[in-house]
Each structure stands twice: as structure tokens, then as C-alpha cells.
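Sample intake sheet
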Amino acid sequence: MSEVKVTWVIEAEVFPADGVAALEAEAIRAGHHVVGWKDEWKDPPSPIQPAGMNVASPFVFRGSLGNALWVRENLAWRPGAYCDAQAFCCTSYYPRAERWLLCGAKWRALTAQQFVAEALDQHLQHFFVRPDSPLKPFSGRLLTRDQVSWEAIDYGLYYDARDLLVVVSEPRTITAEWRFVVVDRRVVAGSEYTALGRAAVRRVEAGPAWDFAQVVASALEPPEDVYVLDVCEVDGRYYLLELNPFSGADLYACDPAAVMRAVSEVARRGFTPLPPVQLPPFVPPRP
């Protein structure tokens, strides 16, 4: 039996063009299929499958976090999108990751309403605040006590729920950041990137940041079989910065061949193509 091929569905405009092209080239080189995402698949929403897409193939989606979650919740694609939003909430994995976390055990989850109302009553002069959700209705940011306001956390711009859960911690000065792709608790690719502008710096294939990421990936209960793990350096030490869903994450300069190989292997694991339809023998009509 020939090897099962994976269909990669890519929302190309979400990521830098060179990274998309490199991943697509590796997919084609490996004999997989590449399909461009179409927004019309959501209008009207299909609870099963877009027309013309064969369910007898494993699918992997990459694109915006919103569409990744929609694919996971609405389509019959398997595995579909690696975007278990609940598993990537800070409040879901922070408690079991505190030994590696940049903020350690010094973090607090509260609603946006509570944060804005109580900020002046807290002893901290500076805050790092971010959404609990990996869908990130606003980006994490540093604020001083006198800067805290609804406008400062983008209320009304991307969300309007005052009970949105946020996570608050004490700021730290980060000197370097890395993103690693983890598959089955194994680091398969990595890239250093700049926090300012979120741009790739260089591919990483070994070194202390990679080794630290592997320690975390080996010991931490994974949110999914495939995900990305961000590491940072502070005062010469390495820390876990955050976990993110693979299907909505920029891969920066990660080795596309290594990513394609490892993720495709997991995507088709245990996948059984649908058997051909057995038609009854043809019986000619009586004259």
C-alpha cells in the first residue's frame, strides 16, 4: 500500500511569504498536497466538509488562530487544526509549568474588569498583562500603574467582554527569544526571533536554548501532539515564555523540512483511508 499523503491547507497571507513558500515546497517535495484556504468555506458554515475536499486524506491547517479554531470545531478534517484553545490558556498549563516559567509562581489571573479596577491597589508599579486565551484578543504588554485603562488593553477594539480573563505578572528584561516546534514531546525545529516586530533572526538546530526546550517538552504534559514552545533568556538563564497552537503560529526560521516531516508523520498516524465503495454487480434489464 502506498504511503498516505497529507493535505496541507494554508492561509498564506497570514505568514511571511518566504516561510509559506518554503513549507509548501517541502510538502510538494515529499509528495503531499497543498491547498489554499478559502474564506467562503465558512459562509455558510459547513459542519462537515467543504465541497470537493476528500475526507480520505489527513489534513493539517495553518493560518490565523481564529480560522484554526473554526476548522477544529466545524470540519471533518483529521487531525485538522492543532488549536485546542482551552489547553493553551495560561490558566490551563501555567500551574504545571511554574518550575520553568519566566514568571514562576508569581502570576495572577483575573478579569479585565478586576485588573482595571484594582491596578491602583496593587503594590507593583509596573505590570505585564496578557490575555489568558491563546487566541490573543490583545497582545501582551507592559504597563505602569498610571497607564492602566480600558484603552490600554484594547477594550472595544478586538473584544468587548469586560469579564475577559487576563494574566498579570511582574515584568522581566528579556535578552533573547526562541520558538521551537514540538512533536510528540520532541523538539524538531527551532528559530531565534526578535520580540520587537516578531521577525526571524536565525535557524537553531542545537545549543542551550534547544536543550532547555527539550527538557520542558519531555517533562511537561503536552497540550497537543504538535505545538510550539517559546523560550527566553533572562540574566543568563533560560525560561519558558509561553506555549502556542501550531496551526496559528509563525515558524520564523524553523527548518521547514524537519517540520514537514515530523508533523506529517503524526497527522497520518493511525489514519485509515476510506475503503472504495463496493457496487453491486451490474444486471442488465430484462427485454
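Comment: The two ends are 43 Å apart (CA to CA). Helices lie at 17-29, 65-74, 90-97, 112-118, 208-219, 256-267.
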